[in-house]
Design brief:
5 helices; globular; Aminopeptidase; 177 residues; seven-stranded mixed beta sheet
Length: 177
């Protein structure tokens, strides 16, 4: 199977959004219209893996590019295809071409699923930090999610975390931290 990531075709936004809804709690993504508006942001890109026929999105990485780092806001594989190595191959290929450090958020390791996710990212070379924050409620549900940061290829320092958190909160979440 082709593992190549290509920019989302605007016409396929609904396919992308459907996969996001299947993959994340409502508090972790924006309402459709707000998510659609992000496609107009110069530093935001959705990289997708289309199926063999180019009709379905098997996986995606939603990336924010900053001057000195990349922030992966969302990363997902179709639930029907999980466990087949697609996600690790996609992310490995992405990391090989990344020219800047890559930062991701993960839930605190308080559940088996969160621990498995952290381990998945660690196997790909990410380092878990003790630095984190409460993610703003993107879905306006009233839920708050405690997140920790992971960085590739080098561990995150407290000073760098504070700088990157400020940029993420302003540009990605549209709030002051």
């Amino acid at each position: 199977m082709d593992q190549k990531l290509t920019p989302l075709k605007t016409i396929d936004f609904d396919l992308f959004y459907h996969l996001m809804k299947c993959s994340f709690p409502v508090a972790e993504f924006r309402p459709r219209s707000k998510e659609r508006q992000l496609l107009n942001q110069a530093n935001f890109t959705v990289l997708t893996r289309y199926d063999l026929f180019g009709k379905k999105i098997d996986g995606f990485i939603a990336e924010w590019s900053f001057s000195d780092f990349l922030f992966l806001e969302h990363f997902a594989v179709d639930p029907n295809l999980r466990g087949r190595g697609i996600g690790s191959t996609l992310l490995s290929n992405y990391l090989e071409q990344a020219k800047k450090p890559v930062l991701i958020e993960v839930e605190s390791p308080t559940t088996d699923l969160a621990v498995r996710r952290i381990h998945f990212y660690e196997q790909l070379g990410f380092s878990l930090s003790s630095f984190g924050y409460v993610q703003p409620d993107l879905g306006q549900t009233g839920d708050h999610i405690d997140l920790l940061m992971m960085q590739y290829p080098n561990p995150l320092t407290e000073h760098v975390f504070k700088e990157r958190k400020k940029e993420i909160f302003q540009s990605v979440y549209g709030v002051e931290n």
